[in-house]
Amino acid sequence: MRVVSTRIELREWKRAHLKKGQSIGFVPTMGALHQGHLSLVEQALKENDFGACSIFVNPTQFNNPEDLENYPRTMEEDLAMLESIGCHLVFAPPVTEMYPEGEDQSRYEVHYGHLETIMEGQFRPGHFRGVGLIVGKLFDLIEPQRAYFGEKDYQQLLVVRKLVDTLHQPVEVIGCPIVRESDGLAMSSRNLRLNTQQRDKADFIYQSLRKAKNHLVGSTVSETEALVKEHFTSQQDFELEYFIIADANSLETPDSDHPKSPLVGCISAFAGPVRLIDNMILFP
Ligand code: PAF
Q1: Which of 67, 137, 153, 159 to mutate to test the pocket of ligand 1 (most atoms within 8 A of CB)?
Q2: What is the model's pTM?
């Protein structure tokens, strides 16, 4: 496995290793890797000639400086995990490499419309502009044929699809199922920040989504949203930020209370200072 930190080294690796027609499957990450990330890299390795991963805690997608500062950084462990599954290339640049002074970034200024004003976009203003900026740059540098994203960040997946469409980047964006702990908690780098009591109870979020899925069978969208909100008021460990049921393709509000197109339930909740998100297809 080769670890590079500059654009020049990256270009040299590609020149030395890539033969005509060979493909790179790419997994962008912010490190603090867990089984969810590894499953993406494994899929990338299976479906491409080379598997590449980036590790970069991207400052432009954090609207809260404390969150950026507290984001777990576990580079040594991350590299060991990637090596153990046979990843070929890791790009781990410093901030100055991705954001050199004076670089023209206007190509990456994409408007995501509705997608950037709801849910994560509403509660983390500017977040998706930062995600689009870094993912767009990484795609231009790495030039993968395929890129793999976890469906846990469901809204991010739709934003990245819009990014590549708008910039005409020739990369296939592949969404991969959420990987969960045995109690149902969606794997996330942020789980490392939960204390023992919060971790013990954190399946509450997944259970709330399951409850919503069961409830929606015999009730309307608004009744189900209300039920989940009510469910959160019955306990004190997690504070609900939002629970929204939306059209799974567009994240628009469903047409009616009895829609026909797929619906996704998206949730964000705080365990103390730790913000957790999760989602589930609720219909069909
Ligand atoms: O999902 C993440 O970890 C980040 O948002 C990403 C896609 C690596 C961009 O920094």
Answers
A1: 153
A2: 0.96
